[in-house]
Specification:
Oligomer: heterodimer
CATH architecture of the largest domain in chain B: 3-Layer(aba) Sandwich
CATH topology of the largest domain in chain B: Rossmann fold
Helix content of chain B: 10-25%
Largest interface: A-B, 23 and 28 residues
Order of helices and strands of chain B: EEEHEEEEHHHEHEHEEHEEEEEEEEHEH
Number of helices of chain B: 9
Structural class of chain A: mainly alpha
Order of helices and strands of chain A: HHHHHHHHHH
CATH architecture of chain A: Orthogonal Bundle
CATH class of the largest domain in chain B: Alpha Beta
Structural class of chain B: alpha+beta
Number of strands of chain B: 20
CATH superfamily of chain A: MetI-like
Number of strands of chain A: 0
Radius of gyration of chain A: 20 Å
Number of domains of chain A: 1
CATH superfamily of the largest domain in chain B: P-loop containing nucleotide triphosphate hydrolases
Strand content of chain A: under 5%
Shape of chain B: globular
Largest sheet of chain B: 6 strands, mixed
CATH topology of chain A: MetI-like fold
Strand content of chain B: 35-45%
Distance between the termini of chain B: 32 Å
Chain lengths: 233, 359
């Protein structure tokens, strides 16, 4: 049992990872839905460009994404210095920066999943809602949104899983500071770099598997419940 | 509620030009598929913005391109029944019905919801989800949902075309009840002579994006059906008189002649329109004896035209009613038919089959 009891630092890493991943997906969700809706339903100048930018983190080496974040959101970066002087918000080497890195890395997965489900919604239903007196915003809230709920849940889980496992961009942007930016993945990496760290790495690996599995099962259950309501058609 | 519609619109290479008005009742936009009637309905509903146009309902302007007015669909106060039901799958029947009602809560409705629900026979369906309903039930819910939105005009785009004959027969009486009991103007798009003959008060006939005729149903349908192939026939209108000798029969009193039909649920004095397909009319030069058909009308040949496929179309004047008949060219030749000749038209009773008019 000695092997399975977690040290205080390990607990900290787990709690931090859960906090970072949750904040990352929940704050990026509204923007994700908006971008997915624009990409799925609107034709505008720069459509392909927006699509490309959203998907970039998926294909760039994570280190590159992390470095770009460091340039832009670092304390001397053009966005970072603005955020600090205006809102007092510092991202570099803080857990909030880790959340930003995770959000950026998970964003393409979130948008992709939601966009596909929006495209699967029959536009004729939205048309019918409009003829019944619903304004475009009400059409979205009462018809589109309930119908894409399974897609949103799937997107959230994918992005959450990505955020839990995110390593390259995070460590490049906010480094590996225990208690502040050392997430589960970074902690495992640290254990593998010190002699006698195998047991710690293994414990955290098992925890990591358990969390991922739990998230997956939860999302399946949620999607089934929502799906049962909608599927009937 | 009166409304006027004036539209000019180009859709790809197709030009639509329509101008008509309605004083209420059921106005049918009638024509073959591709004649532009659905496009006109979509423009009225606000789903398509035309190049030029003006649409008035009562004294409210829904669209006036000269003044840059074009109300979006949700602010037009109309409701639309589409070919397919388009029910919201995530809501129950009750919630579907309540959808438009919720947005219309500030408007006074012309009928209370209970009445509409019972009129359409929806009570038993209320807690169910749309996915488990039959096609006919779904379309009834869609009609109810549109009515509960308290529209000033109901737009219907071939609401029966996706249904089989049995389902059509199930829904038609409900639409007739809307017309008779709710005093709601309906703009009804259809290519079916039978449906239009049965439902419409006024007909706007369309072909190739243009209006080719406006008028009463019998007048326009009679004129129109002459030109079209399969459904060619006559539409006659008369009053029902119950038959003295046989309780199972009823007579339809036309102008200068009379037809016998199975009584069904017809009642004395009822106004009725019947559609007689041209090919259901047989001709005889001498008065036929020993024949099972009940309806033999005496008439005179007014016109005789050869049509495609070697058939000959005849226009007969029976009393004051105009009857169309279609026979083969060979028969016309053998019988030596000519304009002005007196003739007997034999109509199989079943062909009338009022008021179902299944074609």
């Amino acid at each position: 049992m000695e092997l399975l009891s977690l040290s205080e630092e390990e607990w900290t890493a787990i709690r931090l990872s859960l906090k970072v991943a949750s904040v990352a997906v929940l704050t990026s969700l509204p923007l994700g839905v908006l971008v997915a809706y624009l990409l799925a339903r609107k034709r505008f100048w720069g459509h392909a460009l927006l699509n490309g930018i959203v998907h970039l983190p998926l294909i760039l080496p994570p280190v590159v994404t992390g470095y770009l974040l460091l340039i832009a959101f670092g304390r001397r970066g053009f966005i970072g210095s603005f955020l600090e002087s205006t809102f007092g918000l510092i991202l570099s080497f803080r857990w909030t920066g880790a959340a930003l890195a995770c959000a950026v890395m998970g964003f393409p997965l979130l948008v992709r999943s939601i966009r596909l489900s929006i495209e699967a919604v029959d536009g004729k239903l939205e048309e019918a809602a409009a003829t019944l007196g619903a304004s475009p915003v009400m059409v979205f809230l009462t018809v589109t949104l309930p119908l894409i709920l399974p897609g949103i849940i799937a997107g959230l889980v994918l992005a959450f899983a990505k955020a839990m496992g995110e390593f390259g961009a995070t460590i490049t942007f906010v480094s590996n500071i225990p208690g502040e930016t050392q997430t589960l993945s970074a902690a495992i990496y640290t254990f593998t770099q010190v002699p006698g760290g195998d047991a710690g790495a293994l414990r955290l690996t098992l925890i990591s598997i358990a969390i991922s599995m739990a998230a997956l099962l939860l999302s399946e259950a949620l999607a089934r419940r929502v799906g049962r309501r909608i599927e009937a058609e | 509620m009166t409304f006027t519609v004036e539209i000019r619109h180009r859709q790809g290479g197709f030009r639509i030009e329509a101008e008509f008005a309605s004083e209420g009742g059921v106005t049918a936009l009638f024509g073959r598929s591709g004649s532009g009637k659905t496009s006109v309905l979509r423009i009225v509903g606000g789903l398509v913005r035309p190049d030029h146009g003006r649409i008035l309902v009562g004294d409210q302007v829904l669209l006036d391109t000269n003044k840059g007015i074009c109300l979006p669909p949700h602010r037009r106060g109309l409701a639309y029944v589409f070919q397919e039901p388009r029910l919201f799958p995530h809501l129950t029947v009750r919630q579907n019905l309540g959808y438009g009602q919720w947005f219309a809560r500030s408007r006074s409705s012309f009928a209370d919801p209970e009445k509409i629900i019972s009129m359409l026979g929806l009570e038993a369906l209320l807690p169910r989800r749309p996915g488990l309903l039959s096609g006919g039930e779904k379309q009834r819910v869609a009609i109810g949902r549109a009515l509960l939105a308290a529209p000033r005009i109901l737009l219907m785009d071939e609401p029966l075309s996706a249904l089989d004959e049995a389902r059509k027969a199930e829904i038609l009486p409900y639409i007739e009840r809307l017309r008779d009991e709710l005093n709601l103007p309906i703009l009804y798009v259809s290519h079916s002579v039978g449906e239009v003959a049965r439902l419409a008060d006024h007909v706007v006939a369309m072909a190739d994006g243009r209006v080719t005729g406006i008028g009463g149903a019998s007048e326009i349908l009679g004129m129109q059906t002459m030109a079209t192939g399969r459904e060619s026939g006559s539409v006659l209108e008369g009053l029902v008189r119950l038959h003295g000798e046989d309780p199972d029969l009823a007579a339809i009193e036309l102008r200068g002649c009379c037809l016998l039909v199975p009584r069904g649920d017809l009642h004395e004095g009822q106004k009725l329109r019947v559609h007689i397909p041209a090919r259901e009319v047989l001709l005889a030069t001498a008065e036929p004896h020993g024949i099972s058909a009940l309806n033999v009308l005496r008439g005179e040949i007014q016109a005789l035209t050869g049509s495609d496929g070697g058939a000959v179309d005849l226009t007969l004047l029976c009393g004051e009613e105009v009857l169309r008949a279609r026979i083969t060219g060979l028969s016309a030749k053998r019988m030596d038919l000519a304009v002005g000749q007196s003739i007997h038209a034999i109509i199989k009773t079943v062909a009338l089959n009022a008021p179902g008019l299944a074609h």
